[in-house]
Known about the structure:
Layout: H1 18-78
Amino acid sequence: MAFLPKGPDRRKRWVFRPLFFLIIWGLLALLLLINGIYETKRLRDNLYRLLYDEGSALIAGLERSARRLLPRQLPWRLFPKLPPF
């Protein structure tokens, strides 16, 4: 009668071999890299849109202020000796 060998069975495969671990890690790194590229593009587009909107609002406010201020200042520019109200 033959005795069974003691120790781990050589025919069983490891669940996590280093090669499979590196392949899985590489795929995960590739997915994160692609996601980062898309997120960077989205962030850049949103930043440009935000800056455009803020700049437009600032210019519109300055134009409104200039329209209110110029009619008040115009008589003093045309007639410097005119007394103020």
